[in-house]
Amino acid sequence: MQLRILGCSGGIGGVHRTTAMLLGERTLIDAGTGVGDLTYDELVRIDHVFLTHAHLDHIACLPMLIDTVFGARERPIVVHASQATLGVLHQHVFNWAVWPDFTVIPAADAAMLRFEPMETGECREVDGCRITALPALHTVPAVAYALDSGDATLVFSGDTADCAEFWQAVNAIPNLGTLIIETAFANREEALARLSRHFSPRLLLDALKQLARSDAVEILITHLKPADHALTMREVLESGADFRIARLEQGQIIRF
């Protein structure tokens, strides 16, 4: 199974793209601005979008994706997310005021967009990959995802603060090979990280002590803010010598 990193930044500007990952050829994990770098033909092939939560940096390109492929395909794009996240999308995005409601276009029984609620612990299978929603802790309802190819499992934290339930779920995965986890703020902004329920390097390294079999898991850092990305990553590496840690890179392809 292949995961292509379309965007993994905590902001925009220049080369920075916000969170979006392409699983295989037909499935997006989040739909931030990185989706905009896909070709038209690649966009038309998207059948599924799994959202961690409803914040703009993770959904920014979803409305444009639906609009762009409209008329080029007959089957709907299915968005999988918690009922709370889907409710936000329907109320605040696909509401005719911000964007057309593609759940009823061109007709309610033949819409281009379909919402499928997916709560923590629930699974979907897409192209041979088993996707499970895991607990996460953010300022809005959020989930993480475990992607199980059958050979190995990759976990993506989405946006989260330290959460015992998250680590319990992660440690229950027998074939975990890769953990993509966010670190949005440098240590000097730890108070802001706590308030916004993100990690700073110090908070992350404290939380990683809960990770079992850490020597067997590659840890990739995502969601670095552009202003402090180098500082934040340096702080992670300086304190994380006991872990296999690297920076997640836009354009990176992970095979698992």
From TrEMBL:
One of its GO terms (molecular function) is 3',5'-cyclic-AMP phosphodiesterase activity. CDD domains: class_II_PDE_MBL-fold. GO terms for biological process: cAMP catabolic process. PANTHER family: HYDROLASE C777.06C-RELATED, HYDROLASE C777.06C-RELATED-RELATED. This is 3',5'-cyclic-nucleotide phosphodiesterase. SUPFAM superfamilies: Metallo-hydrolase/oxidoreductase. It comes from the Bacteria. Residues 17-188 form the Metallo-beta-lactamase domain.
